[in-house]
Amino acid sequence: MYKVILAGGMASGKSTVSKMFEAAGGLRFDLDEVSRKLLRPGCECTYRVAEAFGKDLLDPDTNEINRRELGRRAFATSESAELLEDLEMPFIREYMRQFLTKEAPVADARFCFVEVPLLDRVEDLLELVDEVVVVVAPLELRAKRAEQRGSSRQEFEQRIAHQPTDKYLRDQADTVFVNSGGLDELKAQVELWLNARFNQHLEQ
Ligand SMILES: CC(C)(COP(=O)(O)OP(=O)(O)OC[C@H]1O[C@@H](n2cnc3c(N)ncnc32)[C@H](O)[C@@H]1O)[C@@H](O)C(=O)NCCC(=O)NCCS
Ligand SMILES: Nc1ncnc2c1ncn2[C@@H]1O[C@H](COP(=O)(O)OP(=O)(O)OP(=O)(O)O)[C@@H](O)[C@H]1O
């Protein structure tokens, strides 16, 4: 199984590339999705996070955690952002390792990829993959795309302050997709990549 890490900062275009990879037969594993699973009602991590950031974050009827408010509290200072990561990252890393070493090798797919927002936190796991692909785009454009998707400028700034820079991502990358134009331009880069690796084309 050919294993890929797909990395990029907030609103760079990872999920957009992911959809194209999936359409071409790639098996996806998304670390943001793992963090959503970790914070489901009744999970150990949810309980620990509520202990640390306030039990009022839990809905008294459903035990659902208020993610938006948690995000506000967590990204308010560097210390609180680090605290949230300390609670979630060990689980996230373990799920990623498990996927790459146990699930991916026996999966029925052309290739597999892990969508990673914070590449520096899993740097030691890069040895488990064949290729690192990163998606980059100018910061202003990303801020605009994030805003169109419902994040405020402040939320964008607070999150990217804790994310690796594009320089770091480019230094780690085997392949860089530059998402500074339209979707067709991004698609053309993905097409070239698929073609070179698997002699594969995206369906029109
Ligand atoms: C704080 C939480 C609850 C906010 O949830 P919400 O649904 O509002 O946002 P979502 O998860 O969709 O993320 C929005 C954007 O923030 C980015 N982001 C998430 N966590 C972090 C972080 N610790 N540092 C920087 N950026 C982050 C995401 O990659 C994405 O670009 C959630 O992001 C979370 O649990 N984060 C901590 C887990 C983590 O570090 N995940 C990254 C996986 S490597
Ligand atoms: N080339 C493009 N042209 C126009 N819109 C785009 C382009 N690429 C991505 N977008 C839009 O920008 C937003 C962010 O893209 P996407 O969700 O793929 O980024 P992401 O890196 O997965 O973000 P996050 O990790 O923050 O969830 C989405 O609404 C997406 O539809």
From TrEMBL:
GO terms for molecular function: ATP binding; dephospho-CoA kinase activity. It is an enzyme of class 2 (transferase). Pfam families: CoaE. SUPFAM superfamilies: P-loop containing nucleoside triphosphate hydrolases. Its EC number is 2.7.1.24. It catalyses: 3'-dephospho-CoA + ATP = ADP + CoA + H(+). GO terms for cellular component: cytoplasm. It is found in: Cytoplasm. It comes from the Bacteria. Keywords: ATP-binding, Coenzyme A biosynthesis, Cytoplasm, Kinase, Nucleotide-binding, Transferase. Pathway: Cofactor biosynthesis; coenzyme A biosynthesis; CoA from (R)-pantothenate: step 5/5. InterPro entries: Depp_CoAkinase, P-loop_NTPase. ATP binds at residues 11-16. One of its GO terms (biological process) is coenzyme A biosynthetic process. Catalyzes the phosphorylation of the 3'-hydroxyl group of dephosphocoenzyme A to form coenzyme A. Belongs to the CoaE family. This is Dephospho-CoA kinase. It comes from Lancefieldella parvula (strain ATCC 33793 / DSM 20469 / CCUG 32760 / JCM 10300 / KCTC 3663 / VPI 0546 / 1246). The gene is coaE.
